[in-house]
Design goal:
The chain has one domain: Orthogonal Bundle (Arc Repressor Mutant, subunit A), CATH 1.10.10. About 60% of the residues lie in helices and about 10% in strands. It is mainly alpha-helical and about 90 residues long. About 15% of the residues are buried. The mean pLDDT is about 95.
Length: about 90
């Protein structure tokens, strides 16, 4: 099994948020992304700091995660890069 790189993990988390109608609670997201809770927290913090995701909801039990416009652009460009790599067998 090939180990995922940092960008691929970030892409996977963002894609999971997008696939859940751009609104998902943190715990289900953690379960679906296949990371330990410590690793998930690191990546989640990074995504928030970079402005790729944001938290919606005031109460802790009501908190949901959604993509920002920057997060959507990240996914679009990631797909374009992968497509380029595949096209040229790199």
């Amino acid at each position: 099994m090939v180990k995922r790189g940092k960008l691929e993990i970030m892409k996977d988390i963002l894609r999971l948020v997008q696939e859940n109608h751009n609104s998902v609670r943190p715990t289900p997201l953690l379960r679906k992304c296949g990371l330990s809770s410590a690793s998930f927290k690191e990546y989640y913090t990074l995504l928030v700091e970079r402005g790729l995701v944001r938290e919606i909801g005031e109460d802790k039990g009501d908190k949901k995660i959604s993509l920002t416009d920057k997060g959507f652009r990240f996914l679009e460009r990631y797909r374009a890069i992968v497509s380029f790599i595949d096209e040229f067998d790199l």
